[in-house]
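tool_call: predict_structure(chain=1)
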Amino acid sequence: MKALVEFIAKSLVDHPDEVSVTEIESDHELICQITVAEQDMGRIIGKQGRIAKAIRTVTKAAATKKGIKVQVNILE
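tool_result:
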């Protein structure tokens, strides 16, 4: 999942070298935390959160195919 989220995030931003994705595994869930440059925060969230929602949707679809739950968080 980390590779997928990182690929999507790096494709959207102006500073792809400043994108980092951290995976945290809990009992029944995988949490992916995205950190981007301050200038790219608007690009990764989108108008009214549409881009962020799309990233979450694609990631959840891929995770469901593998039989796991995933949560995507965007950190400031």
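agent: The beta strands are 20-25, 29-35, 69-75. Proceeding to next step.
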